[in-house]
Fold:
Amino acid sequence: MKKTLPVELTLSISAMIIAISSIAISIWEGITMRNHYHLSIQPRLDYFFDMEEFPDDDKTNFSTAVYKVKNNGLGPAVITNIEYFIDEKKIDTGSDENKDIIFDELFNFDNIAGRGYSTLLIGQTIPMNETLTIYEYSFMTKEAFKRQSMEFYNRFSFIIKYKSLYDEHFEISHNMAKNTR
Structure:
């Protein structure tokens, strides 16, 4: 005659299997949720070079060449480092008040109607959907705009390093392939 397992032992083994399975599923779900949280607050900085050309017949307007950076991600970007280069040489802007003087001397543009920039600081947080101007030049004439805006695009390069709230590090750059760091 065969011996059968007692009912209590069978129930105990079944309960242990269910408990271990529940723990494994909970751990897997926790890992999946953590990955989802990382993605749900991951910043994504993108830059673009925008050229806005206005008609000559309107004397109050001017043409603008501008670098902008936008956080297209779902979370804030924390700036960790910023470097600017002109003609493959690193620029030490020191304080941002010097940026106008340094850039004007190095670019030596004519017919400038104005310039502007956003002060990007180490530790600064760029919120989701925020757009900041890295640097821009406005030109008084279309001729100066056409001649100098692409020079601005080709001579100016930068690298912006940033991190997420989970301390994941990223960077964006323009024209950095030709620069030695």
